[in-house]
Amino acid sequence: xxxxxxxxxxxxxxxxxxxxxxxxxxxxxxxxxxxxxxxxxxxxxxxxxxxxxxxxxxxxxxxxxxxxxxxxxxxxxxxxxxxxxxxxxxxxxxxxxxxxxxxxxxxxxxxxxxxxxxxxxxxxxxxxxxxxxxxxxxxxxxxxxxxxxxxxxxxxxxxxxxxxxxxxxxxxxxxxxxxxxxxxxxxxxxxxxxxxxxxxxxxxxxxxxxxxxxxxxxxxxxxxxxxxxxxxxxxxxxxxxxxxxxxxxxxxxxxxxxxxxxxxxxxxxxxxxxxxxxxxxxxxxxxxxxxxxxxxxxxxxxxxxxxxxxxxxxxxxxxxxxxxxxxxxxxxxxxxxxxxxxxxxxxxxxxxxxxxxxxxxxxxxxxxxxxxxxxxxxxxxxxxxxxxxxxxxxxxxxxxxxxxxxxxxxxxxxxxxxxxxxxxxxxxxxxxxxxxxxxxxxxxxxxxxxxxxxxxxxxxxxxxxxxxxxxxxxxxxxxxxxxxxxxxxxxxxxxxxxxxxxxxxxxxxxxxxxxxxxxxxxxxxxxxxxxxxxxxxxxx
Length: 540
What we know:
The protein has helices at residues 2-17, 20-29, 44-60, 62-72, 80-86, 98-105, 161-174, 176-182, 191-205, 208-221, 261-282, 315-329, 333-343, 353-369, 378-385, 392-411, 421-433, 435-444, 446-454, 458-476, 481-510, 515-539, and strands spanning 128-129, 135-136, 140-147, 150-157, 228-229, 242-246, 251-252, 284-286, 294-296, 302-304, 310-312. It is an alpha+beta fold. It folds into 3 domains: 2-90 and 164-203, no CATH class; 250-433, no CATH class; 435-539, no CATH class. Strands 1, 2, 3, 4 and 6 form a 5-stranded antiparallel β-sheet that branches. A 4-stranded mixed β-sheet has the order 5-10-9-7, covered by helices on one side. Helix 3 packs antiparallel against helix 4, helix 3 (44-60) packs across helix 5 (80-86) and helix 20 (458-476) packs antiparallel against helix 21 (481-510).
């Protein structure tokens, strides 16, 4: 309780120092809700206030820095002037000396030697260990080391950080109403949901075993993509507060100005295409792909770093997201609008659909012809305008897409994300309809297929009996060449009907996951039944 009271005083002291209470009053009195989404020149007074807020968050430490970063890409929560300023929040802080990091290093290690595999000091495990950090953030510090002749980096959480963050989170819940007024959050926003999601995100970032699992999954997803590298994890030395991984040597993307224009264009395309692959093929994406988390390698490839924050898309959301994306690409207003409403679970009858489609059409026009501009947050603004409730993961994806698009535009002012859709579409088709994938899906659905086969209409058995009958007839009437040919043709017809029927049933089973296959299966099934009926009627 004493620590909480002490922290309350610190927060109030910082709020008073930057006169944030004055900002609170001004934002409370300002009733013009349309300003939040205005594209007019920036309100300079509000911009000044947003700088004070950013500085205050930096002074209050890691929890508030992370909070500001999470809020910076949420125009549904804060005015855009505040969002633009909170984007600048940096986590590079004065490093702890190595002695102060010792409590984090001693956890889980006991006296021993290299012969026993147990050590009195964590750094004794390594051939070399540089105690000067190469990076220092609000939550962790990163060191260079050599392990069994391999260059590695060691990410270590600052001691006691979990206690500090949990205390701050507790206070944030207490002071929630202040931030609602201060940042002019609209009443329909689920603030409790946002804070809960923020808490889960922070706890995941603080567990380095979770980050290691994310890295392994990304390595698997990109194992056949030579130009994208993900660091290897050294599991035997990784724990909840220590992560040991492969040392990636490259140039941080934030230093892109040292590259030639041609190289910058290639890197922009590689970053964009690899991220779109994460989203629309894997459904598993890096949620914080800012320039500091992407390295450019000597061979022209890239490496993604820092996997504490990731996003996941289930098959339904991924499908609707791609339909929106593809609708924008082919300039199909109806497809993009219909898919967006399905994602928001909103009926076209509940909104002014004509006005909505007009706005979608304008969005598509900006996306294709607005060169040098960022458009990844256009759909969030559209959702706000029509009071559409999007899945929580959409806001996480939108923030990541904004980072990717902004970075790509910095590299290549003529960059347009639409240029990658053609290649992406082909890759998605190969992924979904490859023979290996179809066989794999069929194996998983075999039980369903078997049940369907048991319930095939009894009329189908007549087809098999007809095949058997004609086979027997062909033996009896071998001397009649004309009749024999007729029988052979009949057998082939029946075999064709049988194969078509079985193939249609397989497609119907697989179509439970892929609606396109289900349609083909239904058509094939109908044709096979019609053909079978015609054959039977001809017999009568």
